[in-house]
Amino acid sequence: MHDARALIDMGAEAVRRLARRGYTLDLAALENLQSRRNQNIRSADELRAESKRVASEVQQTAKAGGDISKLKERARELKDEIREIEAGQEQVQEELRDLLLSIPNLPADEAPDGDSDADAVEVRRVGTPPAFSFEPKDHVDLGEATGILDFARATKLSGPRFAVTRGAGAALERALATLFLDLHTRSHGYVEHAVPYLVTRKTMTGTGQLPKFEEDLFKTGVADRELFLIPTAEVPLTNLYADEIVPPAELPLALTAQTPCFRSEAGSYGRDTRGLIRQHQFSKVEMVRIVDPAEARAELEQMVGHAEACLKELGLAYRVVMLAAGDTGFSAQLTYDIEVWIPSQNTYREISSVSDFGTFQARRANIRTRDENGKPKLVATLNGSGLPIGRTLAALLEQCQQEDGSLVLPEVLVPYLGFRRIAADGTPEA
């Protein structure tokens, strides 16, 4: 969410920057609403001041034995005028808030031009994609052949875009989540949290999922109570500090959690709907950092490294790209995507997005710290996947497959699994 005054003061610069992400800022409409809001505030203040003066005159005149009928009539008129202008003020304030909530974050100047993944700029590649002497299978065929993935029964339970893991597959999911949490808490300094999976509309609004993306969310409720299923742990983790002032000495805050994530994935189709790439429910380890705005860009680079460390531990080939301004998420000003190699598709696919939101989310959620003079100021927020379990599992199965249909897993997982190989029939083997 933006400060209306800041956007108006930026003027053409705000229009230019938002145009880079395909958003047309109606600056005249914004100025009009802001002007009406300010005028209403001034008028209301003047009327209240007059009402106070009239009330004082009523008392003084009454004490002097004078006629107060006209003064009392004016007092009633002023109450009606104040009530009317307050109603108008509330309407204008709501219109202004709705407009501001609909305006995306200003993209960083270093984000490349463009509006699709084809416009992303590659930063680096790490690892060599495995070369197979046979035609590699995709993770769906591998998982179903070994019996560690069951999509048919998941569909029977819940419909399409769900999965059941079993045996070694379920153990592998658990091992991946524990490995990632251990990395982030023991090596990267994050504090693990267990958070609610159902949150309020206010909480969703704080991180930018609402109001724009309501159709992409699952929600539920009992009686008059409305709750949303989280699309990512970013939502509860960031909002833990909503409406709080974080002491500067406590920054940066580094938070992590493993949660299920629930998404409608509206508009996705084709190969992405097969298997583990785009599901309605999946597990993910999330990283969130709450920092001083001056440190945000350095913190972003550090967080990208934390996500990369997960892939390096597993020995998976990947690359890092910087997203184009027009392909950057609504709340973000700069995003790096980490893309893992998927052999069956002969390409890199996104496995983690790591974003700097600047003060955009902090303004919406009212998360502040204090400046050097002790005055409140907004913090900056960042978040990134570290990592999604399903997509990591898909990449792992495909990059670790053997010609006989078995899977040889990374050594780093053995302490978590108790085995390293999954035979073609799904049997765990040392």
Topology diagram in text:
Blueprint: H1 4-10, H2 12-19, H3 27-63, H4 69-102, E1 121-126, H5 139-146, E2 149-150, H6 151-158, E3 164-165, H7 168-187, E4 191-192, E5 198-199, H8 201-206, E6 219-222, E7 225-229, H9 234-239, E8 244-245, E9 253-262, E10 281-291, H10 296-314, E11 318-322, E12 334-342, E13 347-356, H11 360-365, E14 367-370, E15 376-378, E16 380-388, H12 389-399, E17 407-408, H13 414-417, E18 421-422, E19 428-429
Parallel strand pairs: 4-9, 8-14
Antiparallel strand pairs: 1-11, 2-3, 5-7, 6-7, 9-10, 10-16, 11-12, 12-13, 13-16, 14-15, 17-18, 18-19
Helix pairs in contact: 1-3, 3-4, 5-12, 7-12
Summary?
With 430 residues, the chain is of the alpha+beta class. Helix content is 40%, strand content 21%.
The total beta strand count reads: 19
Biggest sheet layout? 8 strands, mixed
Look at the structure and give the mean pLDDT.
96
State the strand order across the main sheet: 1-11-12-13-16-10-9-4
Pick out the low-confidence regions.
none
Specify the overall morphology. elongated
Radius of gyration: 27 Å
Cα-to-Cα separation, first versus last residue: 53 Å
Helix content: 40-55%
Summed up, the helix count is 13
- Proportion of beta-strand residues: 15-25%
Look at the helices and sheets and give the structural class. alpha+beta
